[in-house]
Write a structure and sequence with these properties.
about 40% helix, about 0% strand
Length: about 60
Amino acid sequence: MNNSSFFTADRMTHLKIVVVSLLASIVVMVIGISARPTSDAPVQTVYKAPKAIMATTGDASAVR
């Protein structure tokens, strides 16, 4: 058999390619999931926004 090209490869070669790509994707997912950073820091403090204020200027009353 001529297995040098993807289009001329036989069925077993296609199956090997699918299996290798599936295993490689599983390895990448496992590394990605296990590489999450762990948080050793204490619980973060939640800050509430202060009371709302209104800022105005006196330029509107300067119409001549």
